[in-house]
Amino acid sequence: MAVTEHQLVAAKDNNSPPPFKPGSIRKIKLQNFMCHESFELNLGSRVNFIIGPNGSGKSALLTAVVVVLGGRATTTSRARKASDFVQYGKKFARITVEIHNYDKIMEKDKAFKPDEYGKRIIIEKIIYKDDQSGKLIIKNDQEKRVSERKQELDEMLDHFSIYINNPICVLNQEVSKSFLHSKKPEDKFDLFMKATNLEQIQNDYQEATNIHKEWGDCNNRKSFAFKLLDNEKVKCKEKMTFLEKRVKLQEKLVILNTELTWATRRDNEAKAEKLEEELKKRDEQAEKSDVEIANSRDKITSAESRIDQHTIRLAEARKEYEESKQKVKTLRDKELAIKRERLNVVPALEQEQRKLTRLEKDKADLIRSIDDIKEQQNNKDSAKENEKRKLEMAQIERETTLLSGKEKTLRQRAEQIHKSMTDLKQQISAAVNRMSSLKSELSQHEANLRNLSVGKDMELRKYGHHMQKICEAVNEAYKQGRFEKKPYGPLGFYIKVKTQKVAAALECALGRNVNSFTCDNHRDMLTLQNIFRTIRTKSGDLQFREPPIFVRRYCKKHNVSKFKPVHDVYQTLLDHIDINEDAVFNALVDRTSIETVMFIPNYNEARHIMVTPSLVPRGTRSAYTEDCHLMYPRTANSGFRTVAQNIANQKYLFSSGNDEHIRKKKQDIERVRAELRAAEEHEVNLRRSDQTQRIEYDENIAECERILKELRPLELRLLELKTTLAEDQPQELTGFEAELESCIARIHETKTKITELEHKLTTIDTELEEKRVEIESATKVLKLKEKELEKINTDISSEKDLIREHKEKITDLENKMKEADGERDKLTKELDSIKSQMEAFLQQVRDFSRPSVVRPTDEIQAETKKVKAALSVEIDENQDPEELMRHLRKRLVEINQVTGLKDHNLENFSMTTKSLKDRDEGFKLLRKNICGSVSLQFASVMQCMGMQGELTIHLNDHYINGNLVSKAKTLEMSIDTGKTGQHATQRPMIDNNNSDERDRRGTRSQPSVSDGSGGPRSKRPRLTLSPSEKENLKMTDTRSLSGGERSFSTVAFVLSLWHHCRSPFKLMDEIDVFMDMVTRRLSYNALIKFAQKPENEGQFIYFSPLELPEIDNPENMVRVFEMPRIIRRGAQSQPNGDALQLCDD
Questions:
Q1: For the whole prediction, is pTM greater than 0.70?
Q2: Tally of CA atoms within 13 A in the half-sphere of 433 that contains its CB
Q3: Which GO terms describe its cellular component (predicted)?
Q4: Three-class SS string for 128-189?
Q5: Contact predicate 366/740, CB 8 Å
Q6: Per the count of CB atoms within 10 A, which of 570, 734, 816, 1144 is most buried?
Q7: What 3-state class would DSSP assign to 91?
Q8: What is the pLDDT of residues 351-385, one digit of tens each?
Q9: Fold of 24-184+1063-1122
Q10: Rounded-to-integer distance, Cα 285 and Cα 297, Å
């Protein structure tokens, strides 16, 4: 096939073509491939244009490059399988591509295996018609076969950073057309992710995360098996130790039995001495009890005499109290009668005063009328007076109308302010409630902080503010002999945890029992309750809660081994704590059954055990996890249950280090205080607004009253004028004078009544004040008598309590003496028994010498028990001990190997976890940098083409004022469709779809990458705009542009992505199908300028079915090849010619 190369005029005639970059394509040779029967093409090192009409085989060249470099047939969109590329009637097809490796010695470090392949790498792909796989051959520059492995080809592509499946590295015809037609921002974003390899990185990370999760699940499933393996290891070691020390243990057992015999004799002697001392103490105690009984009876007699005296005083005080009460009642009745009389006088006085006011007004009106009549009679010119009156009436009507309108406006404004004041009151009430809630929350946090901050010497404060006083009062009462046996409490104070991880679960399991007390008998319980009531009365704390009290006889620790669950790995909560006091131990066991509660730290492990009935240890009631989840086992009668405990109000009673909890509590306190300050400021602002509106409201009301006062005289004057005008004839003067005299007489009479009523009212007020003083004095006397009665009653109650207490004490002492007599008889019998045993023992050990040092009996018994347990290990009688030892050693080696693998696996797992986290952070940073760089490069390329564009990449949903503006994972491109004088381009652009010419201008735009926060991300390179440019800038979304304009933006987008693609060559097919000649020229020049930059050096191959416009050829870097039209005959295409010809353009 003949290919014509067009020689372009270079910018400088003497420049030689630039050198090839390692990994560039030097030559393509095809045989029986698609429409090419025999084809060969030598490409340039930088920019190559391959033009030709449709069907001339341009896309076949691109397809051949993809196929020979390992691409699949389906990705080319040209065939379903590789055999479809073979020409019809041919048995095979051959593709040969020559890759540049290096030219100079300095390029060897960038070359791929230069010693094996030399300066050129020849890749040959043979496709057979009957075989879909084909054959791959990789040769060196001497055309000698080096390798046929696909792995070798992949290594070479990775070395040169060639990504065949990257749509921006090989932009075929289908991808180019679909991208030009697509208006969806999602499609552009997908292309961006694939082109920058971010999608592949993200998929690889997700796959690694899934594998890591499966790895972790597998480790969790095998954790229980590893624990069983550890237990087996311990047992193996124990058996081996036993086999080695069996003989020594038997000899040691004989020695221990002898030592135990002498220790028992020593204990019996000590016990006998102790019993004798106990008998002496009991005799002394009996004598003391007799003395105490006599003293108590004397105190009872004395208290009874005092009660008689208090009773006499109480009768006298009660009589005086009743007299004072009757006196106060009488005075209040008199005060009420005086008040009623005053209520009758006041209305009468006010009525007379109103009557006097009316009479004075009538008098003034009569005098004015008489004067008017006299003036009327003296005035002859009445017509002129009437005219003056009419003018005055008109003036008064105008003033009245104006004042009425002003008063109505003020009333409406006052109503609006009143409504606003009502709303403010509701807001103030809500703010006050909010402040109250915050203060309550702050008090709770501060109380918890105080509990956490106490030191070791004030640990009792953790169990309540009054617990320190309670314990001091109990100790003082015990020293005084008020308790038979000292109570223990709070019980949590005597508990010590072995490990801190069990502290939270233990606090949830015990609940309020940690604050409780335990007593030996009910008498001690009553005494303890009296102490609680006394402290509550003295403190005056209404929220004081008495701690619970458990009454149980003190005895040795309960033997819970029969009821306690036994597990190979986990223990009960009782096993994780130390309790030195037997009474506290027994109280907790009886109250909470703590010996039946398992502690399993891991939630999944606990759930697995409690759900499976066969794994639940016998006697297990429930189980707690480290994060305080309570689980009940599945049984035949009930299903599995789990409860998540609320640990928000945890008091950290058993925590040894509270620094972290204190820090968190302080943060909570600061947060609540900040919210409280904000609420208080809001409440102050609301009150200020309310005060301002109230002042304005009062001013409006006052103004309304002032206007009404001005309005009343005007109305009266208007009425008078109307009356005067309405009179047809002058009135009789004599009638008015008679009425005036009558009015004066009535005024005199009314004034006399008012004077009498005022005198009477003054007298009533004086009497009322005297009665009030008498009532206050009598009330004070009544309160004093009432306090005296309360004091006498309190004294009588105290004496009665003292009598009751001494009577109970006498009864208890008598009961104790009876019990002491019985116990004394038992001790005597026990002492006699011990003495008889000691005589028998002397007969047994007379042949043995006594050791110089005899250890404690418990220590000898415990050691004897361990030796017997070690000797009682069962061994198979049919198995030789030496063979058993070999078997145990072999098994121990296997277990150590498995344990080593487990430790190595867990170490690798933790390292992988950290690596995945670092990889996720690195991916986010890389994505952010690439987005910013692509956006900036897009704007720069659009500016080089004489246009302005903006590229926005939305990684997250973008909201403005709560409305979704842009969806996540979208890419939007915008270009400027306006024009300015100094930036407008000189050449018009012709739209293929619209023949109107549009001026294009060149202002600078600002790229942005949206992250959903309402604005572009910071810390990215930006292009700034001048104020005039910002005013004239007008961006249009590419979805509303024509095909040519979209092609412009597509070229800019492709170049911005190429800036981040480090492939040595890029192929682009038919990107200019929707451009006119001018647009194509601008686009091609932009492509050439892009390739001319040093950072973008590489090989560029463009395929176009259109005529090539006039383009630049800087540095002689552009080569143009024209494909001839292929003549197709029938179902086959018969290419002709195989020479490369050169001609001038």
A1: no
A2: 6
A3: nucleus; site of double-strand break; Smc5-Smc6 complex
A4: ECCCCCCEEEEECCCCCEEECCHHHHHHHHHHHCCCCCCCCCEECHHHHHHHHHCCCHHHHH
A5: yes
A6: 570
A7: coil
A8: 788 778 878 877 787 777 777 766 665 654 456 66
A9: Rossmann fold (3.40.50)
A10: 18
